[in-house]
Amino acid sequence: MVSKRRSRSWLIILHFFAFLGAFLPVFGQNDSLQTKIDYGFNPNITETITYSAKDTAKAMMQDDIIELKNQAKVNYGDFQLEAGYIRVDMKAKMVYATGILDSNEQIIQKPIFTQGNKIYEVDTVRFNLESKKGKIKTLHTQEGEGYVKGIDIKRMPDESFNLKQGIYTTCNHPEPHYYIRAKRMKFTKDKKIFTGPARLVIGGVETPLLLPFAYFPLSEKKTFGILMPSYNFSRTRGFSLNGLGIYLGLSEYWDNKMEFDIFSSGGYNIRNFTRYKKRYGFYGDVQLSLSHVKNIEGVLGATKNHYKLIWNHRQDAKANPYGRFSANVNIQDANYNLVNNVNLNNKVTNEFQSTITYDRNIFNNALNISLTGTHHLSNSENKPVDITLPELNIRTNGNIYPFKKLFSSDSKNFLKKLSINPSLQSKYMVNTYDSLMFTDKMFQDDQIGAYYNVPINIQLKATSALSFTPTMGYRGYLYRDRFSYSYNDALQKVDTSRNRGLHHAYDFNAGLGVNFSPKIIGIFNFGKDKKITAMRHIISPSLSYSYGFNFLDRNRYHTYINETQEWYNHFDEAVYSVPTSPSLKNQNSLGSINLRLANDLDVKIRSNEKDTTNGGFKTIKRPLFSAFDFNTSYSLDADSFALSDIQFNYNFGLIKGLNLIGGADFNPYQVRDGKSIDKYFFQKGGGFAEVKTARAGLSYTFNSKSKTGNSTMEKIAARRAEGNLTPFEEQQLDEIERFSSRYVDFDVPYSLTTSYSFRYTKKYDTESEKSHILNFDGNVSLTNSLKVNFATGYDILKGEFSHSSFGLIKDLHCWRMSFNWIPTGIHESFTFEIAVKASVLQDLKLTKNGNSFDNNSFF
After folding, report:
1. Residue 854 has what pLDDT?
2. What is the rounded CA–CA span in Å between residue 703 and residue 695?
3. Which of 266, 291, 314, 746 is the most buried (most CB within 10 A)?
4. Closest Cα to residue 260, out of 224, 289, 234?
5. pLDDT tens-digit readout, 512-561
6. Residue 308 class from Cβ within 10 Å (0-12 exposed, 13-18 middle, 19+ buried)?
7. Range of lowest pLDDT (229-233, 367-371, 581-585)
8. How many helices (H) and strands (E) does the chain have?
9. What does the pLDDT look like over 651-693, one tens digit per residue?
10. Rounded Cα distance, 167 and 144, in Å
C-alpha cells in the first residue's frame, strides 16, 4: 500500500539520476565519497553519496559501471533509491533498477524512490542521462488525496509523463475498490492529469458511466471536481437524479459545493454549500437551497417555489476570551422539508428556530453586552413566523453590593447584603406569516421597544431553609406606538387611533419574597446480603410567597370604556408588557403562593464484582426516580380561577438503558358545557381534581458493544491524537462530532431502540382523545460491511402502521452504497446512491447514513 507520504513531482528524482551519473567515474569500492561537482544547471552541489548492498556492491571503473544487488541502496542528500538490483552504465548513459527473485521465484524488492517525505513505487525503471527520457514499467504513487497507477510510463522532454492503462483513485487499498481507468493518461510537470475516454470501475466491475475525458489537478491544495448523483423515485415528484454537482476547493480555509436535483415531473432543486474554518479561530458552514416543485398527484399542493437557509458558525474558545459570536440558523418556508426531504423525521418537523448571538464582556468583565437575532416558524395551521432583529441586552455580571466595603467582614449590618443589578433591553420584532415572508406585507405588524430596570433587593436568611427577600426598584419602558381609544356612539364601537413617536412609561415598585425550602432525607438499609442494599429518599418541599406593590395608578396607561366595561391598553401588544395590568382586582398588589413537592429516590444495588478493600461485593448507585414532582400556584389577587393547574411529572430510570417519563395536568375546577367554571372540583365530591391531560413514554435501547471496544467519539479522539491531520480532515472530524447520529459505525453489530408513548386529552364537547404508539428504530449488521436500518411505528388503537422507512448501507472501505425506501403514504419514495467516502471515514470505519439531501452536512 502506498502511504500518504508518497507524493511529489518525479522531476527532481529523475534529475537525481543525471547528477548521480556524473559522480560514477570517481567511484571505486568506497562506501562513501564527498566531492564537489561541476554539474551544468547546478554548479554548487556538494553532498555525501553513500551506497550499499547486502550481496554485491562493486564499481567497474574500466567499464564505467556500478552494480548493487540485494537490498541495494543509493543515497544523495534527501534522495534515496532502494531496489533489489541497481545498475548505472555511464558509457550507455543509462540507469536501470528492478527487483530480484526470491526462492519461490517471486519478484521482491521492487524499486522505491524517496525524495524528502515522498515515496514512489515502480516495477522497473530505465533512464537516459543524455536525452533525459525515461521508461518505467509500472508506477504506484500518491499525489494529495489521490493515487496514480499505470504501466509503460514514458518520460518526455517537456518533463511530462505518458501512462498506458492509467488509473486514478482516492482508495488507498493495494487493490482499489473503485477507480477511474483510461487507456491513455498524461501526467504534467505541474501535477495535472489529463485522460482521453475514461470509465468508472467499482469493485472490479466496469460501470456504464463513461467520461469523454477527465481532468485531475493533483495539487495538495484544494481544487475542484464533479459530484456524482444518486438515483431516486418519489410518488409526488417522479424519478430523479439527485446531487449532481461541482465541488470547488478554493483554499485550505474554505470550500464550496453546488448540487442539482432534476425531477421527471419538471421540478428542480439547487443547493449550495459553503464551509470555512480558521484554525484556533472559527469554523462554520452555510447552505442555501431553492426548490421548484411540480407535483404529479397534487397531494402536496400546487406548483410552488421553496427556500431554505442553514448557517452554523462556532468560535474557538481560544480565539477571544472576552467576546464570542455564534450562529445556528434554520430559516425555511413551512413546506420545504415536506416536499424535498427523504428523512421522515425531518418531513414532520413542526418547529424551526434560529439564533445568532454576539456576546462581549467589557470593563474587566464587569459588564456584559449581547446582541441576539432570532427566528421562529411554527408549522401550525396559519404558520406564524416571529423574528427578532436584533435584541440588545446590557447587564452587570452579577449583583453589585454598593455598601459592602463600608463594613468589616464580621459585621452583620443588613446593608452589606443590599444589592442592585441594573439592566437594559431593547428589541425589534416582526410578527408575520410564512405566506407573507419576503413580501411588502411582511413588516406591517413590526414592533420596537426598550426596557430598563434597576432592581434593589436584600436577601435575609433566617435559617438554611427559610429566607426573606425585600425588593424595590424602578422600571422604564420606551415604545414607538401609543394607542388612544374613544367610543363611537354612531357605530357603537370603540375607535382606535395610533400615535407614532417616542413614548415613555415607567413605574416604581416594591415587594417581599418569602421562601421556605427544607430538605427531608430518609435512608433505609436492607443489609449487604440483599440485592438492594440501601435506599435514600429525599423530599424537597418548597413554599414561596411573593407580594408586589406598584406606586402608580393603572389609569396612567389604560383607558376604561363605560359602554363596553373594558380596559384598553395604550401600548397594546407592545414588545414589553406595560406596567400595572388592569386584569387584577387590586390594581396595586401582586401576591401569589407557589407550592412544589419534589422527590428523589436512589437505591444501592449489590454487583457481582468483589470489593477487595472492605470485603464482600461492590455496590452500584442508581436513581429509581430522578423526578416525582408536583407543583401549582395560587394568586391572591386574581378575580377568578386563582388556583392554577396541578402538574405532576415523573422520570423512572432504575434499569440502564430503560427510561420511563411522563406526567399529567389536573384541572382543579368544575367544567360545565365544555368550559371551566369558578367552582372547585372537590366541591361536588369525587376527588380533588380532574385529569386534563396525561402522557407517558417508555423507551429501551439495545446496543451491542463495539468490536474494537471504542465508541465513535473515542475513535475521533484517537485519530486527533495521532496528529498530522490536514485541514480538510479536521473539518471532517468536526462534522462527525457535531452530527454523530448521521454516521453508521460498522464496528457496532446492532442497535435497536424501542419506545411506547401514550397520550390522553380530556374533551368535553367530543370524545376524549387517546393514542398508543409503538416505535422501532435501529440497524443490524448482516456482514462486516452491510447494514440494514429501519424505522417504523404501530398505532395500537387504529391497528395500523405509521410511516415506515427501510434502508441498506454497503461499506467497502473507500466507497459506500445506500438504498432508502419509504414504502407507503404521500412520502412514498426510494433513493439509491453510490458515493466515495472521505479518507478519514475509512480510517474510523464510519459511513454516512443517508444521501446528500436528507441533512445539512457536506458528506
Report:
1. 41
2. 27
3. 291
4. 289
5. 899 999 999 999 988 877 888 899 999 999 999 888 777 777 678 888 88
6. buried
7. 581-585
8. 6, 56
9. 887 677 778 899 999 999 998 888 889 899 888 887 888 999 9
10. 15
Peptide bond into 197 cis (omega under 30): no
Neighbours of 763 (CB within 10 A): 9
Q: CA 239, CA 230: separation in Å to the nearest integer?
A: 11
What are the phi and psi torsion angles at 541 (to 5°)?
A: -75, 150
* Cβ pair 264, 240 in contact under 8 A: yes
* Alpha helices (H) in 185-287, listed in sequence order: none
CB 296 within 8 A of CB 236: yes
| Neighbouring residues of 42: CB distance < 8 A, sequence distance ≥ 6 | 19
Mean per-residue pLDDT of the chain: 79
302 DSSP assignment: S
pLDDT tens digits along 293-310:
876 655 555 557 888 899
Name the nearest CA neighbour of 734 among 596, 645, 858, 548: 858
Residues 554 and 596: beta-carbon distance below 8 Å: no
Q: Is the pLDDT of residue 841 over 70?
A: no
The contacts of residue 615 (CB under 8 Å, 6+ apart) are: none
Percentage helix, strand, coil, to 5, in the chain? 10, 60, 35
Mean pLDDT for the stretch of residues 485-497: 90
Asked if 287 and 310 count as a contact pair (C-beta separation under 8 A), the reply is yes
What amino acid occupies position 579?
Answer: P
Beta bridge partners of 187: 161, 193
Alpha carbon separation from 309 to 261, 291, 336, 477, 859 (Å, rounded): 17, 12, 11, 35, 18
Q: Report DSSP letters for 721-771, one per residue.
A: HH----HHHHHHHHHHHHTGGGEEETTS-EEEEEEEEEEEE--SSSPPEEE
CA distance 278 to 544: 50
